[in-house]
Specification:
Elements: E1 4-9, H1 15-23, E2 28-34, H2 38-48, E3 52-54, H3 57-63, E4 68-71, H4 78-87, E5 92-95, H5 102-115, E6 119-122, H6 129-140, E7 146-154, H7 173-189, E8 192-200, E9 211-218, E10 223-229, E11 243-248, E12 252-256, E13 260-265, E14 268-273, H8 287-306, H9 314-333, E15 337-338, H10 339-343
Parallel strand pairs: 1-2, 1-4, 2-3, 4-5, 5-6, 7-10
Antiparallel strand pairs: 7-11, 8-9, 8-15, 9-10, 11-12, 12-13, 13-14
This protein binds nicotinamide-adenine-dinucleotide and (2S)-2,3-dihydroxy-3-methylbutanoic acid (89V).
Nicotinamide-adenine-dinucleotide binds next to loops.
C-alpha cells in the first residue's frame, strides 16, 4: 500500500493527540516533524519514531517529501505557516483558532485557493461521538423541526496548567473554547446571521474573559443560546462535556452529564448513553476530544484521497470564526452584530 505522507509542525501539548490519530490510520505516515523547541522535537520524535526533525518550517518545506502538512502550533503562527504551505503547494490542516483576526483568516482562504490546495481547520468538536449522535437524532426527524437550541459548556477545570498561554491572551474563552461550541451550533442548527453576546472575567488571575453568553439568530429561524464558562464550580466536574438542549415541533432532545441522551417525541421517551470510545492511547477526561481528533483526521485523509473539500474547510470555518469575532464585537458594544457585514 502506498501511504499518504504527512509532516507535522508544532510538537506541543495537543500535537501528541494528533500524532496518535495519524498513527491509527494505516494509510497515513508522518514522515517529518518540526518544532522550534528542540526538546519538544526530541520528545515527540522519540515517542513516535520520526527520524526527520526540523527546527525551522522553511527547512522542512525546502526538503519536502510529504503530501500534506498538519499545523499544530498556537494561533500567532497559523497565517505564516499556511502561506508557507501554499507557496510550496502542500495541502494543509491548521489547528483552531483559525487566525488572530478574521482578516487573516480570509487571507489564508484566499492564498490556499490561489495555490489550489485544500485547507482544513482542525475543528474537531463536531466530530465528538455524542455530538454526532445528537445530529443523527435531528436528521431522523424524531423531534420534528427544531425551533430552539442550547449548546452549553460550563466547567471549573484548570485548563491553564496544560495550556498556560490561555491565561495570557486578551481574548480567552470565546476564542479558545466558545469557537468549538459556536461551530457545534452551526453544525446542528445551520449558519447564523446575527449574534448578541455578553462576557465576564471571573478569575482574577487571567487576562481574558472566562464566561460568555451568546444569542444566535440562525438563517432558518432557529434561535440558539451558546454559553461557555471556565468559572463554574459544579459538584461534579463535567469537563470536557458539551451539553445540548433542542426543542422541536414534535418533541425535545437533551444531551446531559455522562453523555446521557434523552429524546422525547410523540411515541414516547428514549434514553441512551452516547459515550465516546476510550481509544487505547486516550486518557480520561480527554477521551471525548481525543476520539474526535482521530475522526477528523480520518475525514481529512479520505477527502484528500477523493479530492473533495473537507467539512471544516477554511471556507466553512470562516463562518464559525465570524461568529467569534461577532461575539467579541457585540460584548464590547452591547449591540447585535450582523454576520454578513463581517463576511462581506
Ligand atoms: P503548545 O504551546 O503546547 O504547542 C505549540 C508548539 O508549537 C510549541 O512546542 C512551539 O514551540 C511550537 N511552535 C510555535 N510556533 C512555531 C513555528 N513557527 N514553527 C515551529 N514550531 C512552532 O500549544 P498547544 O496547547 O499544543 O496548542 C496548539 C494549538 O492547538 C492551539 O491553536 C490550540 O488552540 C489548539 N488546541 C486545540 C484543541 C482541540 O481540541 N482542537 C485542544 C487543545 C489545543
Ligand atoms: O479544545 C481546546 O481548544 C482546548 C480546551 C478544550 C482545553 O479548551 O483548549
Amino acid at each position: 500500500m502506498t501511504k499518504t505522507k504527512g509532516a507535522l509542525i508544532g510538537c506541543g501539548f495537543f500535537a501528541v493527540n494528533q500524532m496518535h490519530g495519524w498513527q491509527d490510520l494505516a494509510d497515513v505516515e508522518i514522515v517529518a516533524i518540526c518544532d522550534r523547541d528542540p526538546e519538544r522535537l526530541r520528545v515527540v520524535g522519540d515517542q513516535f519514531g520520526v527520524e526527520r526533525r526540523y527546527q525551522s518550517a522553511e527547512a522542512l518545506f525546502a526538503d519536502g517529501g510529504f503530501d500534506f502538512v498538519d499545523i499544530a502550533t498556537t494561533v500567532g503562527s497559523h497565517r505564516a505557516l499556511v502561506e508557507l504551505a501554499a507557496s510550496h503547494k502542500v495541502p494543509a490542516i491548521c489547528q483552531k483558532p483559525f487566525a488572530p483576526t478574521l482578516a487573516d483568516a480570509k487571507a489564508m482562504v484566499a492564498v490556499a485557493d490561489t495555490a489550489g490546495i485544500p485547507l482544513m481547520i482542525h475543528e474537531n468538536f463536531r466530530w465528538q461521538t455524542p455530538i454526532l449522535a445528537v445530529k443523527a437524532v435531528l436528521d431522523s426527524g424524531a423531534i420534528g423541526e427544531p425551533f430552539w437550541g442550547r449548546v452549553s459548556f460550563r466547567s471549573g477545570f484548570d485548563v491553564f496548567s496544560g495550556q498556560p498561554y490561555l491565561a495570557k491572551g486578551k481574548r480567552f474563552i470565546i476564542e479558545d473554547l466558545g469557537i468549538h461550541s459556536l461551530d457545534i451550533a452551526r453544525f446542528l442548527f445551520g449558519d447564523a446571521s446575527r449574534v448578541t453576546a455578553r462576557t465576564r472575567r471571573v478569575n482574577p488571575d487571567i487576562a481574558g474573559e472566562d464566561v460568555a453568553t451568546m444569542l444566535l439568530d440562525h438563517d432558518n429561524g432557529i434561535t440558539s443560546i451558546v454559553d461557555v464558562s471556565y468559572a463554574t464550580k459544579l459538584p461534579e466536574e463535567p469537563f470536557p462535556e458539551t451539553f445540548v438542549e433542542i426543542d422541536g415541533t414534535r418533541g425535545t432532545l437533551r444531551l446531559g452529564k455522562d453523555y446521557k441522551l434523552t429524546v422525547h417525541g410523540p411515541d414516547g421517551t428514549v434514553q441512551s448513553v452516547v459515550a465516546p470510545n476510550l481509544l487505547p492511547w486516550a486518557s480520561r477526561p480527554w477521551h471525548n476530544i481525543q476520539e474526535s481528533v482521530a475522526l477528523i483526521q480520518k475525514h481529512w485523509a479520505e477527502r484528500l484521497a477523493e479530492g473533495r473539500e473537507p467539512d471544516t474547510s477554511g471556507r466553512d470555518n470562516l463562518k464559525t470564526f465570524a461568529l467569534v469575532e461577532a461575539a467579541y464585537l457585540s460584548a464590547e458594544s452591547g449591540e447585535t452584530v450582523v454576520i454578513a457585514d463581517l463576511l462581506a
